[in-house]
Structure formats: structure tokens, C-alpha cells
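tl;dr need the bound structure. longer version: we got a ligand (adenosine-5'-triphosphate) that a collaborator sent over and nobodys looked at where it sits. i said id run it. heres the input, straight from their email, havent touched it
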Amino acid sequence: MTERTFSIIKPDATRRNLTGKVNAVIEDAGLRIVAQRRIRMSDTQAKKFYEVHAARPFYGELVEFMTSAPVVVQVLEGDNAVARYREVMGATNPADAAAGTIRKLYAESVGENSVHGSDSAENAALEIAQFFTEADIVG
Ligand code: ATP
Ligand code: MG
């Protein structure tokens, strides 16, 4: 089933010039980058995006990190894209991530872990809508 997921290449990765290397892993996994934009996330955008984690002790640090340098927001399309991209990203903590995953290859820590990917098709649609309109997505 072809579906879409939302991805963010996070500040730790853009800072180290890893956008192309991350995109190579995404494309090699069979996912198509159908929309992509480099932005500086505002405090308001980051707070809204990570609203579900507002009660967590790392929320402030997470918002500060996500606004600390440019990010690349993306829409990925492919067969079972949500689950497939979660596999390609690897575990949240790079220490637990499987070999060959983006986080194993590039992440620096559980907080500065290089990429975000939606955790459900429903959240993917909401997250995509926060950053893109349908006209931005060219499949
Ligand atoms: P993401 O939502 O970014 O794709 P995830 O679904 O693997 O990652 P979540 O549990 O949703 O992980 O956490 C969201 C983000 O919050 C993580 O990617 C990470 O940047 C940060 N985070 C999670 N746990 C911690 C922690 N213990 N300390 C610091 N930051 C954390
Ligand atoms: Mg998550």
C-alpha cells in the first residue's frame, strides 16, 4: 500500500552537512522524497510539533534543539512508508539502533538523533499539513 510519511532531518545532521547522506539512505530504502524544504523552525512551530511531549522532562531541551539550526522537512512516499521509514531511522537512542540505520550511522545521542519520522499514518497526515500544502507535494 503506497502511503506518505513526514520526515525531518534534524539540526545535528544539517550542522554536519549530512543532508545528502541521510537522503541517500532514504532513497536506497525505496522511499521517494516527494517534497522537501530547508527551514529554520520557529519556537512556535517546534512547540506545536512536539506538543505530545509537552509534559516530558526533555521538552524544553527538545524545542531548543529543534530551533538551534536549520532542519529539512520532507514528505516521503512508498510502500508502507510510515513503518518502512521507522525501520530505516532505527531506534530513538542510537546506542540501540540496528546496523545500517540512519541513527546508527549518524545520530549523536538520544536527543540529537538526526531524524524524525511519523509514528502512524494519522500523525503523518497531521504533520505533513503543518509544513506543506498538497501543491508542494509532487509524486
Ligand atoms: P521522533 O518522534 O523524533 O521521530 P521517536 O518517535 O523515535 O523520535 P519519541 O519518543 O517520539 O521518539 O521522542 C521524540 C524526540 O524527543 C526524540 O526523537 C528525541 O529527539 C527526543 N527525546 C526522546 N527521548 C529523549 C530523552 N530521554 N532525552 C532527550 N531527548 C529525548
Ligand atoms: Mg515520535
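gonna send this back to them w/ a short note. The chain has a mean pLDDT of 98.
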